[in-house]
Design a protein that fits this description.
GO terms for molecular function: DNA-binding transcription factor activity; sequence-specific DNA binding. It holds the Pfam family HTH_18. This is AraC-like DNA-binding protein. It is a single chain. The chain is an all-alpha fold. The chain folds into two domains: 185 residues, no CATH class; 111 residues, Arc Repressor Mutant, subunit A, CATH 1.10.10. Helix content is 71%, strand content 0%. It contains 15 helices and no strands. Helix 3 runs parallel beside helix 6, helix 10 crosses helix 11 and helix 12 packs across helix 14.
Length: 303
């Protein structure tokens, strides 16, 4: 992208730029698309490496680069129809080529999102998908800014490099905040953590151990024969909550059902709090408001 934008800057601020530089700048659009797709695959596929077949995608780039060395300045200065047709064809092809790969990359990300539903994504997987969506969105913005410039000069030519600069600063900030440079396709590798979380879910949720008031990270860790650190790590990764919030979340779901169940109307809120595993009414109220943004009594009254 930097080489492509560099051509724009030279063309805008320079005079009588040699055709070879113009064609070289345009030709980089033909390598940006494949590289973007490979990057998306590397971020969503464990151990991805380009193989021989992938490099065939660079053939258009090599062809245009090779052709640029045979162009003569005088040929363009004559302003003949052949030169105009060639230049227009290269521009249209390069921008359609990039658009094709942007769409293809976007569809790849969408496919990964469907195979990894939001409720089952790890923090790393969610980060990768968020990062790739932002990245592709920024590529669309740059593409649009240049296409608008081509179509009847809808925007000044220098807008392309300016948009690119803003995009690069924005992506740098997002990469730093998301720590996306520390993650790769192995975030989507199947590992023992997923199986371990299923085991925790079977014990804590399916068997309703969360209803026990004395349940703790230590007791659950002993049941699955793992360290407390490992248990906490897996719950944070897959439930996206710490252990206490993980337990309280399921307690509150039961409490909500009991508050609305006509068979439990005779029970007080205090009894429901103790029945769902809370050791005090105050802790129940705090947890309920944390997840439902209202008090138990208001929830019961407004439903």
């Amino acid at each position: 992208m930097a080489f492509r934008i560099g051509k724009s800057v030279m063309l805008y601020f320079g005079h009588d730029l040699e055709p070879i530089f113009v064609f070289l700048g345009l030709s980089f659009l033909l390598v940006i698309g494949p590289l973007l797709r490979w990057y998306v695959m590397a971020m969503t596929t464990p151990g991805f490496r380009p193989i021989g077949l992938h490099f065939f995608e660079l053939v258009p780039f090599v062809f245009i680069v090779g052709m640029s060395f045979f162009l003569e300045t005088n040929w363009f200065n004559e302003n003949n129809s052949e030169a105009i047709a060639l230049f227009a064809s290269v521009i249209i092809f390069t921008y359609l080529h990039l658009a094709f790969y942007i769409v293809k990359s976007g569809r790849s990300v969408h496919k990964v999102r469907k195979t990894h539903p939001e409720t089952k994504r790890t923090k790393s997987q969610a980060t990768v998908l968020q990062w790739l969506q932002i990245l592709i969105g920024c590529f669309v913005l740059i593409w649009v800014s240049y296409v608008l410039n081509i179509v009847e000069d809808a925007v000044p030519y220098i807008v392309g490099p300016i948009v690119y600069s803003i995009v690069i600063y924005y992506l740098s900030i997002k990469a730093f905040r998301l720590k996306s440079t520390n993650i790769d396709g192995y975030a989507f590798a199947k590992n023992e953590n997923a199986a371990l979380f299923e085991q925790i879910g079977e014990l804590v949720v399916a068997q309703k151990l969360y209803l026990e008031s004395d349940i703790s990270l230590v007791s659950v860790s002993k049941l699955i024969e793992k360290s407390t650190q490992k248990t906490s790590e897996v719950i944070n990764e897959y439930a996206k909550r710490n252990f206490n919030d993980f337990i309280n979340y399921h307690r509150i779901q039961d409490a909500k059902k009991m508050l609305l169940d006509i068979n439990h109307q005779k029970y007080t809120i205090s009894s429901i709090a103790f029945d769902t595993g809370f050791s005090s009414l105050s802790s129940f109220n705090v947890a309920f408001k944390r997840f439902e943004e209202t008090t138990p009594s208001s929830y019961k009254k407004n439903r």
